[in-house]
């Protein structure tokens, strides 16, 4: 029998904020990091910033389509 | 007009259609007429699909059935099995609501970008991803969110990219997926994804230990229903759960 322990890193934004990964283009309310995932890829943003970023994605998609 | 003249006129009309020159007896006329009807109906079907599908050799299906002017009635059953190697926008915004089983073979397809974007499809056949390296915007938004509840993806490759593949497939319930997921993938808007589907997705996640972590995104409600064990499985495979 073997016992494995591991550290679970969880990123939780402040209230009314979101976590944002610009490279992967992902928003989240809570992030569970992979074993060797880089936490610095995520930053906290406000709701207003999230709306602006989403709007810019839609613009790019419309232009490409 | 005497009866004999009328019969002669019928015989002449038959010869005009068949291209034959022999005189016909009355007994022979019904069979000749039936052949004309059968040949006429199938020749248009054959001519159209032979041309559009290049006698079954067509492999680039970019925009092939895109647009609302394609309907299920017009699409009906193509003469040849559709075997795309490129299916970019193949059914984008199509008016076709159903593809019969056995009509579409995607096993050789490398590109399915925008393939079913904004369709009115009620049912999508099995999508074989054996050779597909790009599923960008494949099932995204539009009418899809009103209708599609089930998607079957088989033989997914670890190097296949999933940029906005399921963007706003809001009514997706059952995703029956096999193979290996090796790139970032998001179900952020799929709030009704079944627990069975979620487990199948987790089971398909590649073990990225020793390589760069990737991210899987679930809708907040779906993420909230994950067990500790499922979360541990995901992160232990070096996937970030967002």
Q: Main β-sheet of chain A, in a few words?
A: 3 strands, antiparallel
Number of strands of chain B: 6
The share of residues in extended strands of chain B comes to: 5-15%
Sheet with the most strands: spatial strand order of chain A: 3-2-5
CA-based shape of chain A: elongated
Largest beta-sheet characterization of chain B: 3 strands, parallel
Describe this structure in words.
- The complex is a heterodimer of chains A (65) and B (242).
- Chain A has 65 residues and is α+β, with helices and mostly antiparallel strands.
- Chain A is built from 1 helix and 5 strands, in the order E-E-E-E-E-H.
- A 3-stranded antiparallel β-sheet of chain A has the order 3-2-5.
- In chain A, a hairpin with a 4-residue loop joins strand 2 and strand 3.
- Chain B is elongated.
- Chain B has helices spanning 3-18, 29-52, 72-75, 144-147, 195-204, 220-224, 228-236, and strands spanning 127-128, 150-156, 174-179, 185-187, 214-218, 239-241.
- Chain B has 242 residues and is α/β, with parallel strands linked by helices.
- The A-B interface holds A 6, 8, 19, 21, 24, 26-38, 61, 65 and B 114, 117, 137, 164, 184, 186, 188, 208-209, 213-215, 217, 220, 223, 231-232, 234-242.
